[in-house]
Amino acid sequence: MTGTEGSHRATAYGDRAVLVEAADPADVPGLHAALLAAPLTGQADLVPAARTVLVLLDRPVTDRDLAALQRLVPAVPGDGSAREPVVLPVVFDGPDLAEVARRTGRTADGVVAALTGAALTVAFGGFAPGFGYLTGLSADLHVPRRATPRTRVPAGSVGLAGPYAGVYPRASPGGWQLVGRTDAVLFDVDRDPPALLAPGTPVRFRAVG
After folding, report:
1. Is 124 inside any structural domain?
2. Segment 160-178, tens digit of pLDDT
């Protein structure tokens, strides 16, 4: 079952989920916000990603669900003003800070000032439990991934890649440009919820050290 009338497409994903695929990645936060504000009957969870929102139901998918999702109009996402941001203390001594400064035409201090002044938002999670893709960087801070990924990036590393900033919740390989590090615990199975940076969460970086 698939609907294709609008600027996004709704497709049954198994028997109890629908994948909403946005034509423009910029529409994903609005689609997510619309489903938070007016959930489908039996909507159990939402999983936003770079171009999609997965709608999980506690019942079988119907043609009515697909039609409703195809007619879904993106809402204006909240700007986070009603929510206190998660403030991440960051030591800005990353091995790629000088490279990011060179690519963006700033000094290292200028990069730090831009990052600590940015109002970031968790667009979606992925890559590893607790990893949040943060949007809100100015366009001149969009830098490419490293040509050669590192075989091991330490937990807590703060990186940039394309339009996103992010923090590695655990040690792993990775190709993001590393600008700093934080000791914040991004994922803890004994915490409720386990992930510190859930989609829609406002985030700020604070320079320390």
Report:
1. yes
2. 999 999 999 999 999 999 9
